[in-house]
Amino acid sequence: MLDMGFIPDIERICEMIPFTRQTLFFSATMPPEITKLTEKFLHAPVRVEVAKAASTASSITQRLVKSGPKPWDKRDVLRRLMREEDAGLKNAIIFCNRKVEVSELFRSLLKYDFNVGALHGDMDQRARMAMLANFRDGKLKLLVASDVAARGLDIPDVSHVFNYDVPIHAEDYVHRIGRTGRAGRTGEAFTLVASMDKKSLDAIEKLIGQKIEWQGGDLPAAEVEAADADEPRNAERRDDKRRGRRGGRGRRPEKQAAAPAAETAEPQSQPVAAPKPSRPAPKERPKREGGISDDAAQLPAFLLRPVALKRRETAS
Q1: Domain presence at residue 122
Q2: Which residue in 160, 172, 247, 302 has a CA-CA distance of 20 to 30 Å to 77?
Q3: How confident is the model at residue 114 (pLDDT cuts 50, 70, 90)?
């Protein structure tokens, strides 16, 4: 939550309150980034742990479900899974990695007549509070959310959590499934895993210190190997897309490299242009009778009359 814009407010509050104070800092996990934060706001703190670092509650049943890599494959697997769990599914939070996936999945579930709402970081505070109130009061059965809903929510009775996307950061998995199985209740957590998610899954299992059981069979080894082989190619495509969004900067070096080659190329002989023919001399206009030219013929007659000029006499 602090990474999403709350840290300036916390810093301002800490500057305004007295230094001699008692501060309590609670966190579900304590990665190095959070530890550095405690050193900034706390003075000689006493650390109290109720469980080992990055541990998951024993009251939560965790399962992995294999899925195809395409979005429509994952949506189909999710719908089938929720129908299978319908008997014990009181309500559920469905987590996605990106806001665009939240919107797409929300519209898809609405299309299939699921009672669903959406929650992500682009919503204003009033809309978020209204959506959470509807979910808490039972007016909404499903809530599709980004990781903004994984931390700090007070919804004590959530029966299921579905990870539509495997979280990119392993710590987010602990926060996500921690929305269920709270206050002594039991909960169910399902994670949809495609072939390209194997590395993220390995990081999660390493963090929590346990293997998560598969439901309906593991991923085929051939698919995982193919995904690993395609990873460099996919990374290159992502880099190309990012360069394209920045205005095609990736192509500029090619143009710069081509410029010296053009300069060093041997000059080609160019054809000599033929001299232009000289313009003929203007023809003399014929004159009419009386020595009057054609131009003078166009003048009024009074301008052609001779005028006698008087001589000015000067005093001797």
Answers
A1: yes
A2: 172
A3: very high
| DSSP-assigned beta bridge partners for residue 64 | 191, 214
For the question of whether the overall pTM of this predicted structure is more than 0.85, the answer is no
Rounded Cα distance between 4 and 99, Å, is 14
pLDDT one-digit tens code per residue, 206-253? 999 899 999 988 876 655 655 555 555 555 555 555 555 444 444 444
Same domain, 72 and 205: yes
Q: Show the domain range for 34.
A: 2-41
pLDDT at 118: 92
**Of all residues in the chain, what percent carry a pLDDT higher than 90?**
33
Pair 35, 66 in one domain = no
Please determine, for residue 79, whether its predicted confidence score (pLDDT) is greater than 60.
Answer: yes
Is 48 domain-assigned?
Answer: no
Q: Which residues pair with 44 in a beta bridge?
A: none
Rounded mean pLDDT, 86-101: 93
119 domain-assigned? yes
DSSP lists the bridge partners of residue 117 as 143
Token duo for residue 260: 């010296």
- Asked if residue 79 and residue 23 are part of one domain, the reply reads no
DSSP 25-68: ---S---HHHHHHHHHH-SSPPP--SS-TT---TTEEEEEEE--
Domain of residue 115, CATH code: 3.40.50.300
Q: Give, rounded to a whole angstrom, the gap between the first and last alpha carbons of the chain.
A: 115
Q: Is residue 207 part of a domain?
A: yes
Query: Which residues have a Cβ under 8 Å from the Cβ of 152 and sit 6 or more positions away?
Result: 1
15/202 Cα distance (integer angstroms): 42
Q: What is the 3-state secondary structure (H, E, C) of 252-288?
A: HHHHHHHHHHHHHCCCCCCCCCCCCCCCCCCCCCCEC
Number of domains observed in the structure of the chain:
2
